[in-house]
Amino acid sequence: MTNQLPAIVYLHGLGASPESKKGELVRARFEPQGYLVKIPDLNAPSLPKLSIHDALQRARHELCHVGERSVFLVGSSFGGFLALHLIGRLTLSERKQIRGIVLLGPVTDPWDPESRLVKPEVERQWFETGEFPIVSSDEGQLVGVHYGFLRELREFAGSTFVLGIPVLIVHGVRDTVVSKEQSVRFAEEYPSVELVLLDEEHQLLENPQLFLGALERFIREQHSGEGQVHV
Fold it and tell me: What is the fold of 7-115+158-223?
């Protein structure tokens, strides 16, 4: 590693893009300080034909092109799901470059009955029509995502993680998209995970300084060598 400040690789959520509001807020907070902020387009090969495996490959590509900087991986909503599963695909040397993971309102269990991603009626409709409408932040309208995405998603059901990397989860207690209970259960299963609950909705944008402050505090602690934890 060098004396350069770390790189932050931000993984946006389902239907979002590299121009997502949270991603741009992270960029505006950290780039002026000298951090390298990379926000890959995870709609691979496109949102209608979205592939989880392709999205993970794009995320890994970004991690491999930050030079010798240490890396903080930040995943928002479904980007949090991708961040967790990306770790298991890295080589030992790639994993050593990651100093911490921050998950913002993450999807850890897509089949959680209290959340909206894959309820039985959603899965049935997806199967019958061959696609399911997802709100695209770029298009500003509903975009049909093919059923192949759901088939891929099933490959990750029941996954467990051996992270060995410090993890911070920030979740809004008024989140009606991804239940905060997902994060509470995840933190209970992996006791070394730090969980911060905010009086916010899913987007964490009512007072973005709250999530940005938690993110910056975590990055500074881990970069300075303080608060090293493992799960």
Answer: Rossmann fold (3.40.50)
